[in-house]
């Protein structure tokens, strides 16, 4: 059994007390996703094979644009996209860098829906920013799991 922590992937899960269709809508309806995730995706749609983009609404990061290349949408089961992790330097050109893959998966649980998140591909990020991208996204996903729980609780 592999006991050392992976540097390539971040894994989180959270039990959500909400119906599957409500959790699914919060994930794949671009505007709803943006509301809890902190990106202005008004007028955007998540379509497999296309890119969705919007300004980050998180205080201090509003000048940045979040771009997500939508990979897969398997209704009420799995949603995934690629992006450049922690791409926060407006002067940097991240377009030639590899992306990480963000995957959300829904699973029925006894008292709600288990939302699993995996972001993988960090080992391919340039060494000079790999550790910070991993650290910042790791903390970011801790926060985002609470954000989606709070978002669903208000609806």
Automatic annotation (TrEMBL):
Pfam families per record: AHSA1
The family annotation for this protein states: Belongs to the AHA1 family.
List the signal peptide residues: none
Origin superkingdom: Bacteria
Query: Per its record, how is this protein called by name?
Result: SRPBCC family protein
* Residue ranges constituting the Activator of Hsp90 ATPase homologue 1/2-like C-terminal domain according to the UniProt record: 18-152
